[in-house]
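Technical annex B. To support the medicinal chemistry partners, we prepared a structural model of the target in complex with pyridoxal-5'-phosphate, based solely on the information shown next.
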Amino acid sequence: MTERIQDFLRQRRLEGRDDGPCLVLDLDVVRDNYAAFATALPDTRVFYAVKANPAPEVLSLLAKLGSCFDAASVVEIEQVLAAGATPDRISFGNTIKKERDVARAYALGIRLFAVDCEAEVEKIARAAPGSRVFCRILCDGAGAEWPLSRKFGCVPEMAPRVLELAHRLGLTAYGISFHVGSQQRNPRMWDGALKSSADIFRDLAERGIHLSMVNLGGGFPTKYLKDVPAVKAYGQSIFRSLRKHFGNKIPETIIEPGRGMVGSAGIIEAEVVLISRKSEQDTVKWVYLDIGKFNGLAETMDEMIRYPIRTEFDEDDKELCIVAGPTCDSVDVLYEKDPYPLPVSLEIGAKVLFEGTGAYTTTYSAVGFNGFPPLKSYVI
Ligand SMILES: *Cc1c(COP(=O)(O)O)cnc(C)c1O
């Protein structure tokens, strides 16, 4: 919680504008996070993953600081261009694109695309001739709190064929990408994918195709309840793996931090709507808030992300509570399998603060499910 956010929330309350939950994002923290990445990985270019938080203020700050951008759709590309970044600083990093969207991105000046199969290479060869492509390889996401499963990437053994086809069709076979899973708490998890990348570089070099770049993806964590290593530890571990697998021919590298760039910059303020028990004997209380899975806290799905929750009663004794959202959908429960310790003295109407909510909250908020408006956002 920064002082600027505290002042903002106090002012909002004084003016009686505290009607419904809101996210407050402090740009000073984003600036610090960008600097930490640039220091920890000095030879690596930063491509901010726009989906984590596409607020125009965030995009224009990062554009000014010199960041590049990882966009997943034409709309995200347009948002980044509107924020003042030139198209050579944007990668179309989604491996699943309509051919007409590839063509629109090409018309907007985008020349860097992700692929993970031959059919996608063919689309890009037709709709974005001469562009650079990188091939995403699968990563099992072990050690990540929000693993990205098998949806993106091909097995490493397939990547040389995909990139060889790109080369044959007149594209530049540019490199390899992977994502070790979001909220990756183990800095050593990049090692396996870097070994696979080096194997692919060698394999293709033998066929006369020389790759240039490894895209190290995102995965850099935000501190929630559990401690996480500092960005510096990630930088050191990644550099050691690059040395180990590429020797003295370290390729150009890029990272795509989303959560690690904006997560810690945001606080959500919400309100207790109801506290109740289901029977006289019930040992756990139900605490219902005005925020839930559909208006900002989707990442509590399967209770994967456990946010720190602060209240003004935190000095008091705590008891385990089931925490739920306000909508009439029974999946709108945040923490039940693993109930959350909240102060015994917590009252209906009290404010609660969710820390580390700058990433994947506004963007996951529904447009008014059950009449609850999307999460309000203030960037300060
Ligand atoms: C979502 C995404 C990211 C950002 O991941 P974080 O774990 O939030 O840093 C990076 N790259 C790609 C391709 C993504 O889809």
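Notes passed to the chemistry partners:
The chain has two domains: 3-23+264-379, 93-257.
The chain has a mean pLDDT of 96.
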